[in-house]
Recover the amino acids of this structure.
């Protein structure tokens, strides 16, 4: 391998580490707690009562 190819690998390694490490760091810094579906569940439970019986 030529020196140019080796230099290319050495320059690519920090960028690859950054592309992988930054999203992981953001994920671990602020983990998602998940969506709150309590209102949707309440709506779906009350929906049959809202529909007229003629249907």
């Amino acid at each position: 391998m030529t020196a140019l190819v080796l230099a290319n690998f050495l320059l690519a390694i920090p960028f690859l580490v950054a592309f992988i490490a930054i999203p992981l760091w953001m994920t671990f810094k602020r983990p998602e707690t998940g969506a709150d579906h309590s209102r949707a569940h309440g709506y779906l439970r009350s929906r049959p009562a809202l529909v007229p019986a003629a249907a």
